[in-house]
User: Which sequence fits this backbone?
């Protein structure tokens, strides 16, 4: 984002506008944290702002300030379409292409609103009037912090903004342990804590509220864990029947793939989750070191993301998807051994 872009955006928000803020489909902590953090900031500029998520998201994210004011497009389509149609500005956060918003794509594409992208995923599409894209950043929430600072408004960051941004930074960095976490990330976090983000409470809200069913599902996932030591790879499968057995709710499998990655000498981990409602297999991929799961997901499973964290999907059966995955691994033997 250039200095001219910053000046132009400052001018845009210097007077009241109708603004819509959008995360990607199946929003995670970084997506909702960045959207809600930006929401609170724009409200301080007396903007008319609405956060519209493409669909619902896990309960462990619904405690953030003003979450109850956000809309879910799949549940409130007509109202959401009207807000998008009337919007002067649309912020798209934590995604790099409009096909990441599911059924919202058509209305966003057709909208004449000024679009502003803030995102840290690789290979961004060219749809935004103003684009802040940086794949080196730890999270979109850290980028929203930078954006607010560039606007000359760091002093406007209060407890609500700090809480939302801290949440996304914490979740997208794996509690600040992923390689994307930098010294600057920690400086931003320190400032957010100083402004009122309660780090221990935020962690508890996100990670320490587990149902008995979720713990049982985790046990099943770990029982299904398989290791391919010759490829430094581990993977987990969960069938629709197993999800149903433990009363699966959205977000219940969050973080499961990291258990596979934590095994000694494993550099590549995957989880395959059957979704019979959409007739797909949802795939989450994680890696250590230099092995790019972003490239792997793009090449083989219609997905993408970051070097060490990505997702994809398969329209094959669960068994066929796993067979395909295993058959591909020999092609990456050298890369996995060198990761």
Assistant:
């Amino acid at each position: 984002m250039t200095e001219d872009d910053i000046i132009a955006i400052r001018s845009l928000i210097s007077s009241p506008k109708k603004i819509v803020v959008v995360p990607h489909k199946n929003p995670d902590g970084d997506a909702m944290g960045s959207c809600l953090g930006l929401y609170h900031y724009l409200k301080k500029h007396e903007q008319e702002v609405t956060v519209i998520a493409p669909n619902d998201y896990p309960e462990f994210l619904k405690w953030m300030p003003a979450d109850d004011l956000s809309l879910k497009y799949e549940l409130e389509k007509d109202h959401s379409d009207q807000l998008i149609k009337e919007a002067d500005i649309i912020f798209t956060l934590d995604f790099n292409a409009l096909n990441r918003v599911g059924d919202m794509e058509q209305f966003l594409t057709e909208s004449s609103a000024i679009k502003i992208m803030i995102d840290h995923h690789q290979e961004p599409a060219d749809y935004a009037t103003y684009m802040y894209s940086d794949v080196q950043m730890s999270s979109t929430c850290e980028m929203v912090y930078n954006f607010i600072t560039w606007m000359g408004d760091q002093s406007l960051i209060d407890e609500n903004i700090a809480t939302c941004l801290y949440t996304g930074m914490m979740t997208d960095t794996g509690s600040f342990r992923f390689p994307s976490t930098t010294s600057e990330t920690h400086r931003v976090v320190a400032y957010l804590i100083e402004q009122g983000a309660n780090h221990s409470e935020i962690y508890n809200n996100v990670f320490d509220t587990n149902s008995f069913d979720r713990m049982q599902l985790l046990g099943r996932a770990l029982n299904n864990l398989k290791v391919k030591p010759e490829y430094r790879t581990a993977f987990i499968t969960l069938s629709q029947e197993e999800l149903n057995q433990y009363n699966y709710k959205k977000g219940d499998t969050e973080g499961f793939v990291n258990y596979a990655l934590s095994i000694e000498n494993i550099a590549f981990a995957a989880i395959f989750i059957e979704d019979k409602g959409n007739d797909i297999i949802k795939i989450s991929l994680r890696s250590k070191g230099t092995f790019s799961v972003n490239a792997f997901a793009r090449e083989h499973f219609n997905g993408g993301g970051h070097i060490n964290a990505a997702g994809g999907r398969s329209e094959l059966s669960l068994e066929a998807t796993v067979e395909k995955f295993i058959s591909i691994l020999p092609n990456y033997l050298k890369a996995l051994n060198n990761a």
About this structure: The chain has two domains: 3-207, 212-338. The CA atoms of residues 26 and 205 lie 19 Å apart.
